[in-house]
Amino acid sequence: MTDKRDAATERRRLGGWLPTNEAHLAQYRTDLAERARARAAHAPRMAAVENLAALVNGDPVLRMDMTRAINQALEEGYVLGYSSIEELMTIIDYVMTYAPPFSETSLIHCPLNAVLDWPMCMPSGYALFRDPALNAQLKRVLNCWCGFLSGPHSREHLNTSAPNGWFSPAAEKKIGLSQFVCDRDKPYWGFASWNDFFTRRFREGARPVDQPDNDKIIVSACEAAPYNIQTDAKLSDTFWIKAQPYSLVDMFTASQRELAQRFVGGSIHQCFLSAFNYHRWHAPVSGVIRKAYALDGTYYSNADAEGRDPGGLNDSQGYITAVAARAVIVIESDDPAIGQVGCVFVGMADVSSCMIEALPGQRVAKGDEIGFFQYGGSTCCLVFEPGVISSFVPQPPFEHASAVKVNTHVATAR
After folding, report:
1. Is residue 185 part of a domain?
2. How far is residue 177's CA from residue 196's CA, in Å, rounded to a whole number?
3. Tell me: the pLDDT tens digits for 308-364?
4. What is the pTM of this model?
5. 243, 210 in Cβ contact below 8 A?
6. Where in the sequence is the domain holding 55, given as residue range(s)?
7. Which backbone phi and psi does 199 adopt, to 5 degrees?
8. Gap between the Cα atoms of 276 and 316, Å rounded
9. What total number of domains does the chain contain?
10. Distance in angstroms (rounded) separating the CA atoms of residues 306 and 313
11. Is the C-alpha dihedral spanning 378, 384, 386, 388 positive or negative?
12. Is 82 within the bounds of a domain?
């Protein structure tokens, strides 16, 4: 075992999407591979996964990079559960009919992230997971999985049975299900699918809006823990370096350069969602939706400046605002002094579906629902014009910050 491997035995994991202990993940990958091989012996491979395999095997550069990334991880001594592209595809295919069980001690909320955890931060993995063709096909694979998770067969663990049931006493204590809309007298407590459970809604009054009639009080768009605050944002910046400064034109995309220009010199508040948190988005200010659009991007790309990112994609959260699949919603505040507020919702890992509900021209009140994340890790940025923010409520350091409740005071406008 190498010194690098020893150093990564305990990894800094934000949000609870993957366990901190590498031994748990190694065992999980080994068990997953065994179940995948058993399924492959009698079940045909999903078309989306077959097409992914064909793309990788048919492109010499992709085939080289994926093979090398796997081999580099194995040479470092990491337990992957696979040693070839073919074996990896067998595991990915198995995940297409997988809904995560609850675990009090070592929850694996993002199985594909767990499977790709080490190859994606090997030297050959950085370029591999930035490849547009690979990400386009990964999107089709993840959409296939999302289809399963949105169907009734994904409800396997929506029950009260310990230790895997999401309604078991341990899970109920962890999640606080009494806060959410559900019906314990109905099968699966009234949830139509895993995604329906994942995107569960709070009961009326569970998350009241702070000072709804005071436009100067800006509220949290998500139930999320603060990750970073940056002032004097640049139009274009080197988002791929260690500090990961935000690059506005890359966040909003080059086609929205005029929009990005509006926020130059402004401030950005970024937060991340926990595996157990609420996953719907709410308007941080009252106003009119001016822009609402989804962007394709990467799914498992790390910032190589982080090296062996000790938190998977967690320590690359600034970087992925410029490259990952995401949704952008821009609200023009009722208060002219606030101007427009950019809300950037980023899918960090696995399905990463960013579902926009509020459309251009629609008026929203502060606290109104505007969209949601389907299954997968996620992060969110609020982007403000220069001179707008007087102060942020969350203040660094954020290493052990707890989640800020959605609809609660997160910033004060001048």
Report:
1. no
2. 14
3. 554 445 667 888 898 999 999 999 999 999 999 999 999 877 766 899 999 999 999
4. 0.92
5. no
6. 3-153
7. -100, 30
8. 21
9. 2
10. 10
11. negative
12. yes
